[in-house]
Write a structure and sequence with these properties.
Layout lengths: L11 E6 L5 E6 L10 H15 L6 E6 L3 E3 L4 H6 L8 H10 L3 H7 L5 E5 L2 E3 L1 H8 L2 E5 L3 E3 L13 H9 L1 H10 L2 E3 H6 L5 E3 L4 H13 L3 H14 L4 H15 L3 H12 L9
Parallel strand pairs: 2-3, 3-5, 4-6, 5-7, 6-8, 7-10
Antiparallel strand pairs: 1-2, 8-9
Helix pairs in contact: 5-6, 6-7, 10-11
Amino acid sequence: MNPAPLPDLPDVLLSMGGARGQVLLITFNRPEARNAYSAEMVDSLLAALAWAEDQPSVRCVVITGAGRAFNAGGDLKLMRQHSGMFEGSPSELAQRYRRTIQRIPKALEDYSKPLIAAVNGAAIGAGLDLACMCDVRVASEAAAFGETFVKIGLVPGDGGAYVLARVVGFAHALEMALTGEIIDARRALAIGLVNHLVAPEALLDRAFEIADLIASNAPVAVQLTRRAFYQAHRQSLIQALETAAAYQGIVQNTDDHLEGVAALLDKRKPDFKGR
């Protein structure tokens, strides 16, 4: 089944890729602003993710940036002008954060499709936090990472205190947040912030290679495995085992489970249908 036509959205570019055309590539497209968030970009990212969620043929999503940056977080020009996302009194700003940037981690909390961040350049502030919200991070050797909110007198308002600590551990996350230090890609690899480090020209190829590996597996099993891992972060062992039992009861009654077993016994590649 082919996906519906790609939506035309401001500040992002969308395309389908992968070996079987099952991977959605979302490219932030504000290179003149180092792909810093605008309110329109937030809306577009959420719309693109929602579109992918509704397409059974989309089995994985890759996110990257146009130009030299992945995502530079908040737009400094808008901050200086106290306009757009940064306008209003303390209570108004709190509400604006809830209505804009905080919609992203809320949307991804129960998202079903695996997400890969292909970090081509600077991932700063909310851009770093978005990368941490993805399941796998592939970084170019030209990438840089910083939880830099304190450098401009801010706190991680998009959920960075939650997501960064769950990727690199509390000690590394707190040090990055308190110092605001920007680290290079090799340091990011050393502390577990990124999964893979590649030459700039190999970035998307590697990201799609991983996406294709994921997309080749049984979709329902992939989605429930992803959910089980994230839920286990918040559960006791007993609760995690109960979740695993419930999910296993679901997938063991799918056609894809029978296809996977048959393919393994027949020494052939499986043809998973997502049911």
